[in-house]
Write a structure and sequence with these properties.
The complex is a heterodimer of chains A (576) and B (321). Helix content of chain A is 64%, strand content 0%. In chain A, helix 3 runs parallel beside helix 13, helix 11 packs antiparallel against helix 13 and helix 14 packs antiparallel against helix 15. Chain B has 321 residues and is an alpha+beta fold. Chain B folds into two domains: 103 residues, no CATH class; 179 residues, Immunoglobulin-like (Sandwich), CATH 2.60.40.420. Helix content of chain B is 38%, strand content 20%. Chain B is built from six helices and 13 strands. In chain B, strand 2 and strand 3 form a beta hairpin. The radius of gyration of chain B is 28 Å and the shape is elongated. Classes of the chains: A mainly alpha (576), B alpha+beta (321). Chains A and B meet through helix 3, helix 7, helix 8, helix 9 and helix 10 of A and helix 2, helix 3, strand 1, strand 8 and strand 10 of B.
Chain lengths: 576, 321
């Protein structure tokens, strides 16, 4: 990094100068994506591309699983192989697809949305990213060690996870714990960075209540990472000691307690779902106003509700342990706290619907994924209340009902939100429009595929099909055939998506600075934005973020920024 | 609708109110239908827990359906009637919020979930399936206190409690030991009486799950958990391991046979006369096949030897739920 920082202009926010931000004129070619680049936008795209690769890996694993489950008997792969496949499917999708892709969004969106040139700690940012391929390789390498990868599920409950059948020191479970611990460290590094950036580097005039909801949800989500991840990491380290060095933190025959691990694990891993869903709530809250052409309904309440979710998410973890011998008073307590989460999430859902009401809806691909995501999320919220209810959970807990509920959240809500975000911000960060036709095909196939995959899982679970099985009784066959066909359809749905990504990036129509006529600092920048966003000309924010139809400017001297972005775009096309 | 009519004429407002009323009625009717239908989504009810759990579930299906149809109905309405024409670049109504509405949709869900929680606590208290839990650390018989966990549990338990049936979970088999000394690998229970179970696991965590009973309880190695339930319907039901337990987890299932008390007593007598022999066990067979094929696949611990039982589960028998 050379230091050729421009001299501070009077309009430049002096706070941003304190950051050792990267320098304009970074090598503008593909090689920067393979280097230790400190530019948040490069890191953002690195995260996105890495995680989309792992989406394909995780999806492939899930399709082998659904191939196994299309018939009741365990006939496609050995049951031990199935156990490894489902463990790796969950681990890859959570730690190598969802967390990294959402960090990709954080990197791409947070600095331009708040008018900062980069993240607060660019080198920490790059280090956090480069841990992802490192633990990705470690996790993939576990396919190659004797005995295969971990087959203990992504919960890795001891004593099963520390049985180590072959007795080797280097085993799949060992590599799994190592990868998860590194992932945790990477996420903590990211969280420190995102929170500091949002607190310290906002544009002049951007008070908390002028900040886009995506940034609110980013802080709310990353706060969970800071509070929860140390607990999981400690739990994982103790698990590693039990597995590899013969300690007995969780081993009952040595005086340990396997339940201790469950508390460590869920203290983080339940809130982890909120780490993933909160930014997606942010994406919904950003996109509905744009495509309904209305201000976000109840902006202040929606912003505060994010922190209500953060707080409540940290005190609900025992609802994963209702049938683990948890005493009745504790089950009731955690049932009540879990149910309370319905209130702030309900506020958000009603606010989105309120935003749609009386709007002028434009059904772009991004909007379709938002609408589909909220539709699915309402369903998942209702099954979530059922799972919070102790007597009902005792019947459906650890069955396919939970698998159906969880995937309706993690795929049909969170991944829909991720797709919506990609279609919405792709032009901003690549400078190219995506093809709407392919996008809509992707949406239709995904929507049909996800209902076909996940709805029958609820039915199988209600009838008593346990989760994580490689074979099952014939009465569950019908639901499983439907789910498998749906899963294969979801596999097909990624073809138009990938085709769209690649061909749009290579030869898509050039994107104007603000193709969706959206309000927001990022849309006042050229597409793609320059390395340091507004550089030394940071706008002063003078109103709230969703002034659709209110006829008020977002920033001082808005027309100048619009013209500047437009001229940068025409200069780029003129040069090309 | 009201926002779409700028002239506050009497009849459009009336039509609007009527339309909303009609939509709410339709939503209510659909939700009641869903709640009634929800009973058919569950296995046969075979224990005292089934009716209250099913009713609680139906209540949630009803309330949930009302919210789901209501929300998605409004979304569908906006999709049908609030679409922008192709070249219309206008904005919608610049409504930034409505404090009254926001208070209403904060309070109503709060009241609903607290009511559900109150109902659920009531059901749990009535069922009171879970007894005490005593940790047995140190393994192999070393126990807390001089009298051991069994005595500790009995003290805490209902003094009138019958001798419990020992339920032992292993990788991957089930063993049931009755007070009269009968060992079996399928669970027999008398109909209409509270049966007391004492759950333990020898290796990893297992889950005692009988869908027809709507009940599930984990077996924790190093702990002994007292459990009780009341079967209410004679028949043969599936008992599944619900907590992932490694290699042949999915094969770790057996049956629960609920029979009238006299028949149960007779079965106990007859069973005791049978010789002890290794139980038929799916995991043992699958593991033998794996070894015969050259031990291919990923690592697993070998199955524990099948328990020695007087009565083995019949893999060919058909179960009801």
């Amino acid at each position: 990094m050379t230091s050729t920082a421009p001299a501070p202009a009077p309009s430049f926010d002096p706070r941003v100068l304190k950051a050792p931000h990267p320098v304009p004129g970074a090598p503008n070619n593909w090689r920067r994506f393979l280097s230790f680049n400190t530019d948040a936008k490069v890191i953002g795209l690195q995260y996105m591309i890495t995680s989309l690769f792992f989406l394909l890996v995780g999806g492939l694993l899930s399709m082998i699983m659904r191939g196994e489950l299309i018939t009741p008997a365990a006939d496609l792969v050995d049951p031990t192989v199935y156990n490894g496949l489902y463990t790796m499917h969950g681990t890859v999708m959570l730690f190598l697809f969802l967390f990294p892709i959402l960090n990709g969004f954080n990197n791409l969106l947070i600095p331009p949305m708040i008018g900062a040139p980069d993240m607060a700690f660019p080198r920490l940012n790059a280090a956090a990213f480069w841990m992802v391929p490192v633990f990705g390789v470690i996790l993939m390498a576990s396919f190659l060690v004797p005995g295969g990868p971990s087959g203990a599920g992504w919960w890795a409950y001891p004593p099963q996870s520390i049985q180590n059948p072959l007795g080797h020191f280097l085993n799949g479970q060992f590599l799994w714990i190592l990868a998860v611990a590194l992932s945790g460290i990477s996420s903590i590094m990211g969280a420190v960075n995102f929170i500091t950036t949002i607190i310290r580097m906002r544009a002049p005039g951007m008070g908390w209540f002028r900040m886009p909801i995506f940034c609110w949800t980013a802080v709310a989500a990353q706060a969970i990472q800071l509070i929860g991840l140390p607990v999981l990491t400690a739990g994982a380290v103790l698990l590693l000691f039990d597995l590899s060095f013969g300690t007995s933190f969780y081993r009952p025959e040595g005086g340990g307690d396997p339940m201790l691990y469950q508390h460590f694990f869920w203290f983080y891993s339940h809130p982890a779902v909120y780490v993933m869903v909160l930014p997606v709530f942010g994406i919904f809250s950003e996109l509905f106003p744009v495509y309904a052409r209305k201000p976000l309904f109840g902006y202040h309440v929606v912003a505060i509700a994010s922190f209500a979710i953060t707080f409540l998410s940290l005190i609900v973890w025992v609802h994963h342990m209702f049938y683990s011998g948890t005493p009745q008073w504790m089950r009731n307590l955690f049932m009540v706290t879990t149910m309370l989460i319905a209130v702030p999430t309900g506020i958000k859902v009603f606010a989105w619907i309120g935003t749609l009401w009386g709007g002028k809806l434009r059904l772009t691909t991004a909007m379709l994924f938002c609408l589909g995501g909220v539709f699915n999320f309402i369903f998942a919220g209702i099954t979530g209340i059922m799972l919070a209810t102790v007597p009902v959970d005792i019947h459906v807990g650890n069955t396919y009902f939970v698998v159906g509920h969880f995937h309706t959240v993690i795929f049909s809500t969170i991944t829909y939100g991720v797709f919506a975000g990609i279609y919405h911000w792709f032009p901003k960060f690549t400078g190219r429009m995506m093809y709407e036709g392919l996008g809509k095909l992707h949406f239709v196939l995904t929507f049909i595929g996800s209902q076909l995959t996940f709805l029958p899982m609820h039915a199988a679970g209600l009838l008593g099909m346990p989760r994580r099985v490689a074979s099952y009784d014939p009465e569950f066959a019908f639901a499983n055939v439907l789910a498998s066909l749906g899963a294969f359809l979801l596999g097909v749905a990624t073809i138009p998506f990938l085709l769209n990504l690649v061909s749009s990036w290579v030869r898509g129509e050039k994107a104007p600075p603000n193709p969706w006529h959206a309000i927001g600092l990022e849309w006042l920048l050229p597409s793609p934005p320059p390395a340091e966003n507004f550089e030394d000309d940071v706008p002063t924010v003078i109103s709230g973020p969703y002034g659709y139809g209110l006829g008020r400017p977002l920033v001082e001297d808005e027309q100048r920024y619009v013209a500047k972005a437009a001229s940068a775009a025409s200069a780029a096309t003129g040069g090309a | 609708m009201t926002t779409a009519s700028p002239s506050p004429g009497r009849s459009p407002r009336l039509w609007g109110v009527l339309l909303v009323l009609l939509a709410v009625l339709a939503d209510l009717a659909a939700s009641f239908w869903m709640a009634a239908a929800s009973h058919h989504w569950l296995p046969v009810p075979a224990s005292a827990a089934a009716a209250p759990v099913d009713n609680l579930f139906a209540l949630e299906v009803g309330i949930g359906s009302f919210i789901f149809f209501g929300c998605s109905g409004v979304m569908l309405w906006t999709l049908l009637f609030n679409r922008a024409p192709k070249y219309d670049l206008d904005n919608g109504d610049p409504i930034e919020g409505n404090l009254k509405l926001e208070i209403v949709w904060t309070l109503i869900p709060l009241v609903i979930v607290m009511l559900i929680a109150w109902k659920a606590i009531d059901v749990s208290t009535t069922l009171s399936t879970l007894g005490g839990k005593v940790r047995v650390t140190g393994g192999h018989g070393a126990m807390h206190g001089a009298e051991g966990p069994a005595a500790a549990l009995e003290a805490a338990d209902d003094p009138a409690a019958a001798e419990p049936i020992e339920v032992i979970g292993r990788q991957w088999s089930w063993e049931f030991i009755y007070p009269n000394g009968v060992h079996s690998s399928e669970l027999h229970l008398p109909e209409g009486q509270r049966s007391y179970l004492r759950l333990s696991a020898t290796d990893v965590i297992h889950g005692f799950f009988v869908p027809a009973f709507r009940l599930k309880q984990d077996l924790i190695p190093g702990s002994v958990i007292d459990y009780s339930l009341i079967p209410t319907r004679a028949g043969r039901y599936r008992l599944r391991d619900s907590m992932f337990s490694g290699g042949y987890f999915s094969s770790n299932q057996t049956d629960v046979v609920v029979e009238p008390p006299e028949q149960y007593a007779a079965w106990l007598e007859q069973a005791l006369a049978q010789p002890l022999r290794p139980a038929a066990n799916a995991a043992t067979d699958l593991y033998a096949q794996r070894l015969a094929r050259g031990d291919r696949g990923w690592a697993t611990v070998p199955p524990a030897p099948p328990p020695l039982v007087h009565v083995s589960a019949d893999p060919a028998a058909s179960h009801e739920g």
